[in-house]
Amino acid sequence: MDFELLMFIAAQVCTAIGWGFLVFSYTREDIDDLLKAQIAVCVFDIIAYVLLGADAGLFICFFELIKTILYYKTNKDNLIFWLSLVAYTVIALLTVREWYALLPILGSAIDSFGASRDSKMANICSMVSNTLWAIYDVIIMSYVGALCDSAVVLCNIGVLVFGFSRVMHISRLRVVKYSYLSKRTLKKVHALDEKNFGTDHTWDNNYQLKAYKKNNDSFFAVKYKHDLVGYINYFNLDPEEYAHLKRVRKMPSEVNLDKILKFKMRRKAYVYIESVNVRKEYEKEQMTEIIRKKLASFVKAKWRQKIYIHGLLGYAMSDYEKELYQIIGFTKVRVFDDESILFELDESKIKRFLLK
Taking 70 as the threshold, does the pLDDT of residue 172 lie above it? Predict the structure, then answer.
């Protein structure tokens, strides 16, 4: 068989696999599973464009891989958008030798713009973007890609005409682990705490940052589109400190920073969830399920890393937190004088939690 024909067939197969992962990603609600699927999409697209010798598609997909990771792992959405425009400009200067090489660059720029807007505008931008990609794919002979691009355009038309499709499920709510806390994020957290918990139960920003620096694997942000609407703050504690918190008659206003530990392989971990706080308008069943799944995936991920969580303490001040812990299956340890409650998911329940 002719070598060029083999390359052509292999490119079509890779494109089909990539689109298969894309469809699969739409069914994922856990943010880590979603990210892995999206990375797989980019990898197979890169291979396909390498086989077809399509420079513009190759560079765009490689950048989309980096951008996808940044979107899910950081809280710099606006900065990423503007950096994307710079990247698309550089890619255009490097790869545009024929007019059609501009099509995927324009398409990706338009899609990035739409992702930062409301759902209707996002659908319109996705239609335009995938139309440009479909034309490009036909020209470079990625026929499977062109077919799938066209299918997305039809789906977007259906969404605009009939409303958001439950089949194409892409939740605007997502839970993201931050690899750092910016001053802007701390201000949002502080404002949310003051509003929901009151000034007496709100940490100073500098103290929050010091606690975070002791173990930066300690903060999940709850986001709607690009807006932070809540968070989960947790710490891996020294076993003695964990046991001490279970015995106290009044919860300390601050965590002993010296007792916060980093997660280590083949070590037991005792996690204290200091706060689960979301805006009142998002305290709904969907949010509760998203947080439950995130906590489950967090525990499972740690066990896969050979970090064995043997206890989870949850301190609940708000009615939402109290309801959340009971739904998840935490046991009530103690009710304090201020009506806040300490809950625990012990080792036996954690094992059942892992099976859900």
Answer: no
Nearest to 60 by CA among 132, 143, 139: 132
One-letter amino acid for residue 107 of the chain: G
- The answer to whether 289 and 245 are in contact (CB under 8 A) is no
| Secondary structure of residue 278 in the 3-state scheme | strand
- Does 267 score more than 70 pLDDT? yes
- pLDDT for the residue 166: 40
Instruction: Give the chain's count of helices (H) and strands (E).
Output: 13, 8
Which letter, b or e, does each residue of 188-220 get, where b requires 16 or more Cβ atoms within 10 Å of its Cβ? bbeebbeebbeeebbbeeeebeebbebbebbbb
End-to-end CA distance of the chain: 50
CA distance 17 to 151: 16
For the chain, residues classed under CATH 3.40.630.30 are 173-355
Rounded Cα distance between 211 and 302, Å, is: 20
- The letter for the amino acid at 247 is R
Percent of the chain with pLDDT over 70: 87
> What token pair was written down for 151?
């299918």
Task: Report yes or no: 353 and 329 within 8 Å, Cβ to Cβ.
Answer: yes
Coil, helix or strand at residue 220 = strand
The pLDDT of residue 149 is above 80: yes
140 in helix, strand or coil?
A: coil
Structure tokens at 264: 């280590």
Residue 281 has a CB neighbour count (10 Å cut-off) of 9
Q: The domain 173-355: what is its CATH number?
A: 3.40.630.30
Give the per-residue pLDDT at 300: 84
Nearest to 291 by CA among 323, 259, 336: 323
Would you tell me how many other CB atoms lie within 10 Å of the CB of residue 265? Answer: 9
